[in-house]
Amino acid sequence: MIKIAHEAPKGIFDDIQKLTDYDYALVHLLEEDEEYLRLFEESILKGREVILDNSIFELEEAFDAEKFAYWVKRLRPEWYIVPDALEDTNLTIAQMENWNNEYELLPGKKIGVVQGKTYSQIVDCYKYLDYIAKVDMIAISFDYSYYTVSVPHPNKYVSWMLGRVKLLGDLMKDGIINKDKRHHLLGCGLPQEFSFYKHSDYDWIYSLDTSNPVVHGIKGINYKSDGLWSKESQKLYELINFDVDDIQLGTIKNNIQKFRWYTNGNNPVDSIL
């Protein structure tokens, strides 16, 4: 079963935590928001599994490595995503090399993000992270520009969805995927993508994170039985202080219920909806 986390506004953090398998923290918000920091410190104290993200999706550049190391030491999450560079294989490798040289003794387990603009670059980055950097988990994002080349479609969200499905299939077919290592799927374009990974061939996918069901619930958009065919562009961190009303919370819970069904073919949260 793939572990699921959904980022959410602070006001419903506890509600969403009851519906998810672990918690996903954005490092720049730890630095900016004491209440946000407290929520994740409490998660750690409760024994919740936490992944600390370097906020590259939100900031469009990775958080400063020295400051990121400080927050790894302070929060002590089980997992953290080493600073990387969007679609830049060489810079991602260089930053990982620097991280391993400077911060080898930090607590927690390292996640390396595959970056590249072509299949060849993605493979090279993957092999480096796996065999040389020896990260504990490998992450693959939802919105590489490569997807629109490998699976062209007038709806870019369909390209993103089917592009990652095709990429993972190609990496398995070519013997690149290390099935003995855990993998994380970063974000999502369309939530029904994860129904492709229910087969035992994908047992190496350990976890995923996305705010998709939350953001769409806030916007009043209910998931359908076949998912969605468009995506709100709002980033969750922009809604971190949003005051969610009861109707919106109900829609969010409905979306989370359907998301879990897409992903794992089950519905373990009926009792609290």
Q: What is the CATH top level name?
A: Alpha Beta
Element string (H = helix, E = strand) = EHEHHEHHEHEHEHHEEHH
Q: Tally the helices: what do you get?
A: 11
**Could you tell me the radius of gyration in angstroms?**
18 Å
Residues in helix, %: 40-55%
Can you offer a commentary on this structure?
Strands 1-8-7-6-5-4-3-2 form an eight-stranded parallel β-sheet. It is of the alpha/beta class. Strand 5 (109-113), helix 7 and strand 6 (137-141) form a beta-alpha-beta unit. Mean pLDDT is 95; it is low at 267-273. The protein has one domain (3-262): Queuine tRNA-ribosyltransferase-like (TIM Barrel, Alpha-Beta Barrel). The longest helix is centred in the C-terminal third of the chain and has 19 residues, at 246-264. Helix content is 42%, strand content 12%. The radius of gyration is 18 Å and the shape is globular. Helix 6 (89-102) runs parallel beside helix 7 (119-132) and helix 10 (212-218) runs antiparallel to helix 11. The chain starts with a strand and ends in a 9-residue tail after the last helix.
